[in-house]
Amino acid sequence: MSTYREKLSILSEMIAFAKADQALKDTEYNFLFGVASGLGIDKETFDSLLKKQVEIIVPKTQADRILQFHRLVLLMNVDQEQNQIEIGNLHNIGLGMGLPPSAIEQVLTVMHQYPDKIIPPEVLINIFKAHYN
After folding, report:
1. Rounded CA gap, 50 and 30, in Å?
2. What topology is assigned to 4-132 in CATH?
3. Exposed/middle/buried for 66, CB within 10 Å: 0-12, 13-18, 19+?
4. Rounded Cα–Cα distance for residues 62 and 71 (Å)
């Protein structure tokens, strides 16, 4: 599992992504706090990340990078609104993590086939597996 510093990095990256449109909606806050809770981060620490970003650490393993990308896809769709800034940012974050561009594009296309654009984890994993083989 990730170190405490890596967990703060995961959340910080997600918060910055959510704030890309200059607003943090309640649905986004609740989703982010749910991720924070799942990572064992308390509310006070989480709320401090809303004000001050920590250093972003790229996840070490491919599985952790894919998981973080999936979290970001879910976050982008939690408010059921997408814009080109979010899509572009998500694409760039995926590239920055070293994910295959073709897999990123496929995920961004395939998610529209699912209710609320919530791509199931196994579908996302299979997309990345196909691009690594």
Report:
1. 13
2. TerB-like (1.10.3680)
3. buried
4. 14
Closest of 3, 88, 14 to residue 53, by C-alpha: 14
User: 35: which 2 tokens?
Assistant: 């991720």
Cβ neighbours around 113 below 10 Å, total: 9
d(CA 129, CA 85): 27
Q: What ranges in the chain are assigned the alpha helix state H?
A: 4-18, 26-38, 43-51, 62-78, 84-96, 101-110, 121-132
Q: Is the pTM of this model over 0.85?
A: yes
At 117, list the tokens: 């654009």
pLDDT in tens, 83-126: 788 899 999 999 999 999 999 999 999 999 999 888 999 999 99
CA 89 to chain centre: 11
Q: Of 72, 116, 76, which Cα lies nearest the Cα of 93?
A: 72
